[in-house]
Design goal:
It is a single chain. With 254 residues, the chain is an alpha/beta fold. The chain has helices spanning 17-28, 40-52, 67-81, 105-133, 154-174, 207-219, 231-238, 243-253; strands spanning 8-12, 32-36, 56-59, 86-89, 136-141, 179-186, 189-190, 205-206, 224-227. The protein has a seven-stranded parallel β-sheet, with helices on both faces. A two-stranded parallel ribbon has the order 7-8. The chain is globular. The termini are far apart.
């Protein structure tokens, strides 16, 4: 188990929702937090709140889609708070997909580039220095939706499945050289993103609760942090169900 006190943690996708709540929770546990997102005014508000509580935080605005910019920000973070011990790749979005109404491959690919490509950009920005130190922790925020396809979520589920499988793969390599890899798979968390949903969201939890669960899992260096219970186990079992049974289960839940 690792302590988060005085650890340099870079949270990408920190301006709202899980990223915002997690940044505040990490700072409460004594971490030196660097926050990145496109909207500087939201980052400044988070930093002010952390500092008002006696924590340490700095804002580094940037776009996760721009690899060159992300590398520059990683260097600035390193120079400001010290080595990046933990990077949390949380930037992402969701679009509802109705292929029978409108199918635009560009929308699917754009979301893949943001969710999956953004994760890759975060990793490429910090990995060389972590490899040099033979120390570090990569955390990618995917989703339970990445376990198997869900209604209205073709683009989102595909991007999160890519993240899950990629993190599983690199873990085999990086753990051997001292770098931990954690996949975070939340269920439905109340955020500005889920507020747009017009369908029933089972086992919905608030962002503060999600942040506590994630921070606890990071401290324990868990390979996967999946929640909330029992929704996570329902979807884990659903991965191995024959399709007719899986289809009936999903039809009952949505």
């Amino acid at each position: 188990m690792q302590t988060l006190k005085d650890r340099g943690i870079w949270v990408v996708g920190a301006s709202s929702g899980i990223g915002e709540a997690l940044s505040l929770e990490l700072a409460r546990r004594g971490a030196k937090v660097a926050v990145t997102a496109r909207r500087k005014e939201l980052l400044d508000r988070i930093v002010s709140e952390i500092q008002s509580q006696g924590g340490t935080a700095q804002a580094f605005p940037g776009d996760v889609l721009d690899l060159s910019e992300m590398k520059k920000i990683a260097a600035l973070v390193h120079n400001s708070i010290g080595p990046i011990d933990i990077v949390i790749a949380n930037a992402g979005s969701h679009i509802e997909t109705w292929p029978e109404r409108s199918f635009k491959s560009a929308e699917y690919l754009d979301l893949m580039q943001l969710n999956y490509g953004g994760l890759l950009h975060c990793i490429e920005s910090v990995l060389p220095e972590m490899l040099e130190r033979k120390s570090g922790h990569i955390v990618g925020v995917a989703s339970l939706a990445g376990y198997r396809g869900l209604p209205k979520a073709g683009a989102y589920s595909a991007s999160k499945a890519a993240m899950i499988n990629f993190l599983d793969s690199i873990r085999f390599h990086l753990e051997k050289v001292g770098i931990s890899v954690t996949t975070v798979n939340p269920g439905f968390v109340k955020t500005p993103l889920t507020d747009k949903n017009d369908f029933y969201m089972p086992f919905l939890i608030d962002a503060d609760k999600a942040a506590t669960i994630i921070a606890d899992g990071i401290e324990r260096k868990r390979r996967e942090i999946a929640f909330p219970f029992p929704f996570n186990w329902i979807l884990k079992v659903a991965r191995i169900l024959p399709y007719p049974l899986y289809s009936k289960l999903v039809d009952r839940m949505w």
